[in-house]
Amino acid sequence: MPSTLLSPNVQEKMGNVERSAEVEEAAKSTGSSFVRRKKRLPLSERVIPKILLACALVSIFTTMGIVVTLLVETVAFFQRVPLSAFLFDTKWTPLFQPQHFGIWPLLAGTFMVTIIAGAVALPIGLATAIFLSEYASDRVRRVIKPILEVLAGIPTVVYGYFALTFVTPLIRAVLPETGIFNALSASLVVGIMILPMVASLSEDAMVSVPRAMREGAYALGATRLEVALKVVVPAALSGIIASFVLALSRAIGETMIVTIAAGATPKLTLNPLESIQTMTAYIVQVSLGDTPHGTIEYYSIYVVGMTLFVVTLLMNLLARWIARRFREAY
Amino acid sequence: MDAEKRLVVRKWANRVAAGVFFLATMLGIAVLVVLIGAILRDGLPWLSWEFLTNFPSRIPEKAGIKSALFGSLWLMALTAPIAFVLGVATAIYLEEYAKPGRLTRIIQTNIHNLAGVPSIVFGILGLTLFVRGIGLGRSVLAGALTMALLVLPIIVVAAQEAIRAVPNSLRHASYALGATRWQTIRRVVLPAALPSILTGTILAMSRAIGETAPLIMIGALTFIAFVPTSPLDAFTVLPIQIFNWVSRPQEAFHHLAAAGIIVLLIVLLSMNLTAVLLRNTFQKRY
Question: Where is the ABC transmembrane type-1 domain (chain A) (predicted)?
């Protein structure tokens, strides 16, 4: 019995079990659209999700590309330089003889910049966030927030120029022994660069603290300061700390400011008035020169890049974990 | 201390703190004003029509930013479509097609982590993959591909938010009329989300136009005295030309850098303005 002779009703009653291969065949050959439409979507509905998925996978491939690239060349590096020399040497001089490959001077430079930048950006950023979320009127906030966004959108090469031609002379006027390239000037400006990030992410966290909690405190006679410090900040603490970690991670990865203003002298020092070198600045220094492919100097940028990638990745994961793990439920 | 005295102290503490918080906020704004002031002071006298239309030169008085300006233009013209298509496609997939599950979660987490990867690491990727790996050389195209991957997370997140903001009632209405899923996305969801997506894309592009480090990595820092004519030509961009001038010891080149910065900031500001206007004009309420 050809299926086309059946009314849809009868066919439905027959159910899937009854619909034999022969019936399917017949449906296909006669071009009956009834059975087919149920089975097959139009071409666009089948192909487009796959294309979209392929696009979404590009970001996965990007991460894999980064990891594989760094890993392969890092392995090549460690085939020539023993890991112990990388971890225990205290000098970093891959670009001239005698070559040393101790990562610590670069790490020390990077962390000095990060710590000073954090000392500037974290307190000021948090204070800004408290002002915007607890003290400022709507009108004031509507003016100040876009200005902070402008600050966040300024290219880092511009900040580098500012550090070298404005902040450094200022520091040298007060402390004449400061070098033209010094860690302090670069760090202060990195601090200014990450300030809007701390302020806006912390403010987001604080604004999402429900009004009822503030009003409870006000009803007990608390001042604005007490509400801010004893209710809002503790309630938003996970978001605030996450914003701190993210901002510090940004400071670690910052490149142009430190390349322009902090110099190119990898050394273990605690004196911020001296020239230092960060991991990022080293990578730029090598790629500015014409380093031939396959040399040890060439591989060294991948080792430093790998270190940088791992450190910032861990910090970004930490920030996400803090934000999730310690989120207060209201 | 009796209660009344304590109240006075608490009120004063509040007032002092309000002042401190206000000053902290003003500090950021003050720095912005000083920064822009210093740059205008250094660069404005050097800004001229010749500065825009001359190629870089060893003689500061004759130096200009023509090649950098065109390089930035080329880079944007190639980066924007690549990043836009990839970013919007990813967002549509994640918001409209993906079922909650392992793969979706991995993609989502991965995009967030990519957003936090230092830009210079993208430079290393670009150098290895595009410049050397598939042999594009130190070309505009290699730079654009690198830049597209760098800004991709920004566009994806912006587009996801835009798509999520389209109310479900619109989708249901479309399905009720017999539209398929893709027809609904293409004719209902995307048009409604487009202004927000474009705003996000413009902001991502303004990030790309100011990026320096990844392009230095892929080798865009050579003396370029011509305008690129094809995607495979060598190039330089505004931030790199600025960096080039800043790194020279002579004072005159610093002034050129400042003049270049003014041009760069004007470009950025007009892009941001466009984004804001776009957002305000097309903001729909459902």
Answer: 107-319
Longest dimension (CA), chain A: 102
A293 with B249: CB under 8 angstroms?
A: no
Let me know: does A231 contact A210? Beta carbons within 8 Å. no
Whether the predicted interface score ipTM is above 0.90: yes
The residues pairing with B139 across neighbouring beta strands, listed in sequence order, are B234
Contact B219, B138 (CB under 8 A): yes
Is pTM, for the whole model, over 0.95? no
Residue A67 CB burial class (10 angstroms; 0-12, 13-18, ≥19): middle
Cβ–Cβ < 8 Å for B170, B189: yes
- Chain A residues inside the 8 Å CB shell of B39: 158, 161-162
Nearest Cα neighbor of A127 from B137, B43, B17 is B17
Question: Could B114 and A63 be called an inter-chain contact, meaning their C-beta atoms sit closer than 8 Å?
Answer: yes
How many angstroms from the chain centroid is the CA of residue B92? 21
State both tokens at A291: 């380093």
Give the tens place of pLDDT for each residue, A236-283.
Answer: 999 999 999 999 999 999 999 999 999 888 988 889 999 999 999 999
Q: Which residue is it, tokens 């070198």?
A: A277
Give the integer Cα–Cα distance in Å for A303 and A78.
9
